[in-house]
Amino acid sequence: MNLKPLGDRVVVEREEAKGTTAGGIVLPDTAKDKPQKGKVVAVGEGRVTKDGKRRELQVKAGDHVLFTSYAGEEFKINGDQKVLLMREEDILAIVD
Question: Which of 21, 33, 42, 78 is most buried, with most CB under 10 Å away?
Answer without folding.
Answer: 42
